[in-house]
Automatic annotation (TrEMBL):
<dbReference type="InterPro" id="IPR036291">
    <property type="entry name" value="NAD(P)-bd_dom_sf"/>
</dbReference>
<dbReference type="GO" id="GO:0016616">
    <property type="term" value="F:oxidoreductase activity, acting on the CH-OH group of donors, NAD or NADP as acceptor"/>
</dbReference>
<dbReference type="InterPro" id="IPR020904">
    <property type="entry name" value="Sc_DH/Rdtase_CS"/>
</dbReference>
<dbReference type="InterPro" id="IPR002347">
    <property type="entry name" value="SDR_fam"/>
</dbReference>
<dbReference type="Pfam" id="PF13561">
    <property type="entry name" value="adh_short_C2"/>
</dbReference>
<protein>
    <submittedName>
        <fullName>Short-chain dehydrogenase</fullName>
    </submittedName>
</protein>
<keyword id="KW-0521">NADP</keyword>
<dbReference type="GO" id="GO:0050664">
    <property type="term" value="F:oxidoreductase activity, acting on NAD(P)H, oxygen as acceptor"/>
</dbReference>
<comment type="similarity">
    <text>Belongs to the short-chain dehydrogenases/reductases (SDR) family.</text>
</comment>
<keyword id="KW-0560">Oxidoreductase</keyword>
């Protein structure tokens, strides 16, 4: 990684915040993997949660190498974020492992599905909300309990989407779009509740709304004739984003540089919603 990017990440996360632990869901996804490494490079430790039993060895070895290089610690737990009891069980296992106090959450876990609304199964629609909205709330709910227990303030970052504002041209994603709009409202609602109660530590809650990211998961959609040209044509920057372009925004929202932000959405979409 270029030195300038490393220094930028260090400055944005704010030096005092580097001595903390962060929980991250959706750790095996492209964004989760990238943010995990960014936190480790910034001096934090990470507890990674994902539905799969084990991350890919090559991927996890890369994470471990970063942790070792920056004297950090990283832990992986299989966890269904829709299972409240499993989430609680994971957090019960943490105290003996931890060297740093728990500081915040990056909720990357989420799924997408598409199809014409007239043919889209209701159960598939429900699943999108279960994972993208209920799962996000379930982990945030546990994080708030941990904040109260430790009497430490926290910063929670929910990964939403520009699709919570607008529809995606060329694909039918009513369920996904609706679920991400719900994440925006969940962000505002929890921020209002947890930022104003005098009997609990301050918990800031913000969301990040990425635009189109060029990843393996997008490869199939981009192969559809005309899709990439249409998406790029809607952007003032005339290109899709790369996953590394979300490192600094996440670290900013986690750290003290965003101390006067809560209930906000940081839209990083290449101008798609402008």
């Amino acid at each position: 990684m270029p030195l300038t990017m490393f220094l930028l990440d260090r400055i944005i996360i704010d030096p005092p915040a580097t001595d903390y632990l962060y929980t991250l869901t959706g750790a095996t996804g492209c964004l989760g993997f990238t943010v995990t490494k960014a936190i480790l490079e910034g001096g934090g430790d990470v507890v990674c949660l994902d539905l799969v039993e084990q991350p890919l060895k090559k991927t996890w070895d890369e994470v471990l190498e970063v942790a070792e290089r920056f004297s950090g610690s990283v832990f992986y737990f299989q966890c269904n974020i829709c299972d409240e009891s499993r989430i609680a069980s994971v957090f019960e296992q943490l105290p003996p492992l931890l060297k740093k106090p728990l500081r915040g959450l990056v909720s990357c876990a989420g799924v997408s599905d598409n199809g014409p609304a007239t043919e889209f199964p209701v159960n598939s629609f429900r699943r999108l909300f279960d994972i993208n909205v209920t799962g996000t709330f379930a982990v945030a709910h546990q994080m708030a309990k941990e904040a109260i227990k430790s009497n430490l303030s926290m910063s929670l970052v929910f990964v939403a989407s520009m699709s919570g504002y607008v529809t995606n041209k060329g694909v039918d994603t009513a369920g996904y779009n609706s679920s991400k709009a719900a994440v925006h409202q969940l962000t505002r609602s929890l921020a209002a509740e947890w930022g104003s109660r005098v009997n609990i530590p301050l918990i800031r809650v913000n969301s990040l709304s990425p635009g189109y990211i060029r990843t393996d998961a997008k490869a199939e959609a981009l192969q559809k004739p005309g899709t990439e040209a249409q998406w790029v044509g809607d952007l003032m920057l005339n290109r899709l984003s790369t996953v590394d372009e979300f490192r600094a925004p996440v670290l900013f929202l986690l750290g003290d540089g965003s101390s006067y932000m809560t209930g906000a959405d940081l839209r990083v979409d290449g101008s798609h919603c402008a």
